[in-house]
Amino acid sequence: MKRALVLGGGGAKGVAHVGVIRALEEKGFVPDLIVGVSIGALVGSAYSILADSSSLWEITLRTYRKAARWLSLKKSAARTHSPILSAIVCAYVNTFREVLPSRRYFRILRKHLGGYRFSDTKIPFMCTSTIMNSAELCIHNDGSIYEALRASMAIPGLFKPEEKGGLILADGGILNNLPVSVAREANSTFVVAVDLSSSDEVTSFNTSNSILGIIDEYKAGVILQREIAAADIVVSPVMTRRIDLMDSSSCIDVMNESYEEALKYDFNGVTL
After folding, report:
1. Domains in the chain, number
2. Which one of 45, 53, 152, 171 is the catalytic residue?
3. Structural domain of residue 12, as residue ranges?
């Protein structure tokens, strides 16, 4: 039996993957293949290299705690209600292809993952991006993991798409935010998928963060339901709070909550 773990996209909610992975491993599930998209690709790549949920947990915890001081300063700046600042931001968004400077944002990924190739992982790993030229899914399974992650995580409007060999590559979640079918095509016979799409009622359109979250939720359509049906087990962590992209404490809370919830998850008698 070839067992696969599929990690869906979900922005800041992706930290829930870390908690679910830890719980699954404690329940005896260790995948033979990991498939990820967007933030799921980032978490999946780290897990494929470490092949140990405890190490992944500790590294994630240290990262968020270390980022807390820096993020608190950025959060204060982001909440400045200045008409002049708003005008500058609007002009920037309408002029350039990215809101966030991807070179700076991905610098930490390059530092820690820049030297890794798909052939270096302890657990086979694949991730996906969207070929914007043809609206097709691109499957990354060789070469530089860092370069593949940049493509898989290139959320339209936030980061400019990656260009490779004439192809324009962007976030894989545009076409498929839970690529179970990719795992099946790789001959996986048992698939556990972690779905981070939310069924929460829309409560606010007041911030860019809330709007991005709502857009992510709208992806839960026909394609997502098809992918869910193709999995043997689907774990859907319940988010008890909206995650602020710049609030590291809420991310740590979600990591802990998803772990506790997955430990109690009813797998309908299926032995992992």
Report:
1. 1
2. 171
3. 3-80+102-154+169-263
Is residue 126 in a domain?
Answer: yes
* CA–CA–CA angle 254, 256, 260 (5° rounding): 115
Query: Does the predicted TM-score (pTM) go above 0.70?
Result: yes
Q: Give the pLDDT confidence of 119-131 residue by residue, as tens digits.
A: 999 999 999 999 9
Annotated catalytic residue 54: no
Residue located via tokens 């990924």: 109
Within a domain: residue 150? yes
Establish whether 171 is a catalytic residue. Answer: yes
Q: How confident is the model at residue 78 (pLDDT cuts 50, 70, 90)?
A: very low
CATH number of the domain residue 182 falls in: 3.40.1090.10
Set 38, 188, 248, 258: catalytic member? 38
